[in-house]
Specification:
The longest helix has 41 residues. Helix content is 49%, strand content 19%. The strands form two sheets. It has an eight-stranded mixed beta sheet with strand order 2-3-1-5-4-9-10-11. A three-stranded antiparallel beta sheet has the order 6-7-8, with helices on one face. The protein is built from nine helices and eleven strands. By secondary structure, the protein is α+β, with helices and mostly antiparallel strands. A hairpin with a 5-residue loop joins strand 2 and strand 3.
């Protein structure tokens, strides 16, 4: 839109927003909101805590999304009025204010447009995120913990509830692995491009000679399973271990052996849960995590078969995707989209929307074969 007159830019943004409104189906949104409000007003709803929380999360999300679209439409109208006022009064300050609002509107419409690109089968689901320390020893464990904090802070910035199911702490510092959910609609569609290996380069705080260290952590993102999903799991193919939950430095969290680890022997997938006091609750949650991972494996296998039938190469995003360099210079760079940020501190505090939006567009292009 560079070089266009403000009136033309506003008209272009209005057209883009109309396309977004059509894809999002605002009338359908309003009907869903009315239905969910009716459900949430039913006092019997809270007899089923899980369903009640699902209804209220969905209602909150839809109200927020509808509010964003309606708010942008109003801001476009207000910006047009502001430009008219600036012209009538020949007021440079008002014109500057209108220009600033136009730039903000351009960013906001672009961000909302990204939401319309999430049309995959499971994109609307909540996300199950696993992080594992890889090569790099104690630095990798510390790096895995930093990544966990980055994504939890990102969710917090957006008001998305999270629940940490399991964290396996390393002996000296950091974590070996962690699994948590982001409980928001479209969390999977939003985060699935983060799947892969994240590389950190820095002066190691654990090296008494102050040498530069490169460490790696792997991130896995799968959609949370729903009742409609059919994932057959043979109990005879499971090994179930119970153990005592532990915190940093080996500190016992629970005094009973309530944590549960399930190994799916045919696939080698291992899942754990230790956040509940009850062994039965931890087992139920771990089974849900296992179902999610098996569902994603099944989806990937089907996608690979379809690609093979079409004579296509399979797309794999599970390789190194992003570098976080803290020394000798400071930069975070995505290897797929080329997006860069010169403030790693802000990125590691959860400011990753620019990376996420770019990779959603990139994935859409890859899937469309363009």
């Amino acid at each position: 839109m560079a070089g266009m007159e403000p009136e033309e830019r506003l008209k272009e943004l209005g057209a883009t927003l109309s396309g977004i409104e059509q894809v999002l189906d605002l009338d359908g949104m309003r009907r869903d909101i009315a239905e969910l409000r009716e459900q949430s007003a039913d006092p019997d709803l809270w007899n089923d805590q899980e369903r009640a929380q699902s209804v209220t999360r969905r209602l909150s999300y839809l109200e927020s999304e509808l509010g964003k679209v309606e708010g942008l439409r109003q801001r476009l109208a207000d910006a047009a009025t502001l430009y008219e006022l600036a012209a009538e009064m020949d007021d440079a300050d008002t014109r500057t204010e209108a220009d600033g609002e136009l730039e903000e509107l351009h960013k906001a419409v672009q961000q909302l447009e990204v939401r319309t690109l999430m049309s995959g089968e499971y994109d609307a689901r909540e996300a199950l995120v696993s992080i594992n320390a890889q090569a790099g020893g104690v630095d990798a464990a510390d790096w895995a913990e930093q990544l966990q904090r980055m994504y939890l802070r990102w969710a917090e910035r957006h008001g998305y509830p999270t629940e940490v199911y399991e964290t396996s702490y390393a002996e000296e510092a950091g974590i070996k692995s962690t699994t948590f959910t982001v409980k928001a609609p479209y969390a999977y569609g939003t985060l699935r491009g983060e799947h892969g290996t994240h590389r950190l380069v820095r002066i190691s705080p654990f090296d008494n000679q102050g040498r530069r260290q490169t460490s790696f952590a792997g991130l896995d993102v799968v959609p949370v399973v729903e009742q409609s999903d059919h994932v057959e799991i043979d109990e005879n193919e499971l090994r179930i271990d119970v153990y005592r939950s532990s915190g940093p430095g080996g500190q016992g969290v629970n005094t009973t052996d309530s944590a549960v680890r399930i190994t799916h022997l045919p696939s080698g997938i291992v899942v754990s849960c230790q956040n509940e006091r009850s062994q039965l609750q931890n087992r139920a949650t771990a089974m849900n995590v296992l179902q999610a991972k098996l569902l994603e494996r099944k989806r990937q296998e089907e996608a690979e078969k379809m690609s093979a039938l079409r004579g296509e190469g399979t797309s794999s995003w599970g390789t190194q995707i992003r570098n976080y360099v803290l020394h000798p210079y400071q930069i975070v760079k995505d290897l797929r989209t080329g997006v860069e940020a010169g403030n790693p501190t802000s990125v590691l505090d959860g400011d990753i929307d620019e990376f996420i939006e770019a990779e959603i567009r990139w994935m859409r292009q890859q899937e469309a074969g363009t």
